[in-house]
Amino acid sequence: MKKNQAKLQVQNLEVRYSTKEHSTLALDKVNLSIREGEFVSVVGPSGCGKSTLLKVAAGLLKPAGGQAMLDGKEIDGVTGRVGMVFQNDALLPWKTVYDNVRLPLEIQGISRDRQGEEVRRLLRMVGLAEFERYFPRQLSGGMRKRVALARTFAYDPELYLMDEPFGPLDAQTRVTIGKEFLKMWEQVGKSVLFITHDIEEAIALSDRVVVMTSRPGRIKAEFEVNLERPRPFYDIRFDARFKELQKEIWHCMAEET
Ligand SMILES: Nc1ncnc2c1ncn2[C@@H]1O[C@H](COP(=O)(O)OP(=O)(O)OP(=O)(O)O)[C@@H](O)[C@H]1O
């Protein structure tokens, strides 16, 4: 990758969903760039095209216009360099926690010994070291989500694409997982495109928060999050700069709904 070149760059992106009767313009001239190691969250009203943007970055959708590039090369289909976490990320129910997290390491051809070390390190990080022999059905929703996060970190992609990854969790578990996720991310420092409805979560995690307009989605505003790192995922909310930013983003979004 060239110096100063964006990890992910989206230029004048247009995406259309077409059926026999309808054609919906989901994204309209979207420009967004994510630097190496930068954490960018996207917030915006329901249906504004956040997931659509993520799917283009994942190589799952072809744009109707403009382009999306990874390290300066046009994204052309799914690549192993990009890791995705979705809201309803499923674990393999017939495999133990240990084997679910181990799978990406096996696919990468890592030696058995290293696989074991890495799985145990990741399970310790998400606080599930004692649950390696359990099956997904024996865990709570929050614990399953933690296993899914450990598995994503096992993939160790260059770019993390995350669509409401903590979506279906209760508020308290969401904070616990957010905390763990931030701690893990601060150690690996990879580029992230993170989609959420939660402004506080976006600020607490990100270097930059991007607000989209309602459909067709465009980038309405970008907010730099100038809060030190490592930062406390929950307590950072009491910082005056956090509150100011939250107010600004809230007002920006409120105009759209
Ligand atoms: N497969 C599809 N076929 C037709 N229209 C679609 C399809 N997927 C999404 N759309 C439309 O494109 C627009 C953007 O959808 P998208 O899922 O990207 O929004 P979103 O911002 O992620 O929404 P939410 O926050 O509610 O999850 C919506 O109006 C939606 O109805």
UniProtKB/TrEMBL annotation:
Superkingdom, natural source: Bacteria
SMART domains in the record: AAA (SM00382)
Residue stretches making up the ABC transporter domain: 8-239
Gene Ontology terms, MF aspect: ATP binding
Stored Gene3D superfamilies: P-loop containing nucleotide triphosphate hydrolases
Matches recorded under InterPro entries: AAA+_ATPase, ABC_transporter-like_ATP-bd, ABC_transporter-like_CS, ABC_transporter_ATP-bind, P-loop_NTPase
Keywords, alphabetical: ATP-binding, Nucleotide-binding, Transport
The protein, known as: ABC transporter ATP-binding protein
Organism: Paenibacillus filicis
